[in-house]
Amino acid sequence: xxxxxxxxxxxxxxxxxxxxxxxxxxxxxxxxxxxxxxxxxxxxxxxxxxxxxxxxxxxxxxxxxxxxxxxxxxxxxxxxxxxxxxxxxxxxxxxxxxxxxxxxxxxxxxxxxxxxxxxxxxxxxxxxxxxxxxxxxxxxxxxxxxxxxxxxxxxxxxxxxxxxxxxxxxxxxxxxxxxxxxxxxxxxxxxxxxxxxxxxxxxxxxxxxxxxxxxxxxxxxxxxxxxxxxxxxxxxxxxxxxxxxxxxxxxxxxxxxxxxxxxxxxxxxxxxxxxxxxxxxxxxxxxxxxxxxxxxxxxxxxxxxxxxxxxxxxxxxxxxxxxxxxxxxxxxxxxxxxxxxxxxxxxxxxxxxxxxxxxxxxxxxxxxxxxxxxxxxxxxxxxxxxxxxxxxxxxxxxxxxxxxxxxxxxxxxxxxxxxxxxxxxxxxxxxxxx
Length: 434
Prior knowledge:
This protein is α/β, with parallel strands linked by helices. Helices cover 28% and strands 29% of the residues.
């Protein structure tokens, strides 16, 4: 029998919070940039489905940021990605999602599964001694959780910081206090943070966050964690000889790096094009239209006639086209934005979508296609009206309400669902097989 690969040890920290909007991404990015500036190789991961925070964290660390989720990506996938990162990283950081115990599975589940020390970032705005009660609750709620300490964020003054520290019980470590500073705050819009490529002064914000981190105990490396390998599985070359054209620009940017790597591992050749630049479609056997923000670029997309003509020709030739969320919206007859402005789009998938002010879909879901199940998630503010009957519906990871509709129209497969391709390579290959 071959020898089992040895565990790999690497300093690691899991940054979480009591809730969303506590400043986790800003401080994770600042922490990554601080250690990168010290000459260390930093690998950052994001808990759960997310396309926006990872681009910020990638810019901060200088490396692609992968998703970790015990349900969507699976424990085996998580385990192997952490093990691979530990091969040459000097520091591994994981940013949690929502609050520490929110969701099934939660950030706490992930941290406990892999034994990664947990740092709770707590927004101290409007709090004094209650900060200690929140910290105590997070630290003691689940026995066995590897709790490392707390960090006070958005602190008003030196006196405020002193009160926060004094209230903590002796067994709870405070790693530092970070002052409120608009110069490092990351801007937001309806789906979350503004995309990294749209923040002109992102570098300056990252450096401000890094400077704040340098004044805390986080300037030192956290404890080392032993990461174990997963059982190796091979990917069959089911897409050998298949060229896939993928839309990628500010309107279509919601792409998991792992999805692209899986397509390449399946043997596909990948080519990219920009509808916003009115690129003609590269000669391809299949097309992937990922999600993004088409609603912010309606006039430009409506005027991109060269892209439109080549996509219509691709579909008319009966070649596969797989579209997710924003990519699906681009295929419709029309899309109405938040201000009530309506633009005609490709018109190759019958229907009209309208951007609302409230979430219309959210959560982890899976879909069965031709006997194979793909896992993923949904997150959108638009509502779709279409005469098409769904091919099937996705199923929610929890709850009994029906999931997102999946449509098949000629050679098009489209849905609001964002699929995580490595969750099922065979199902993925079928989406793009001519």
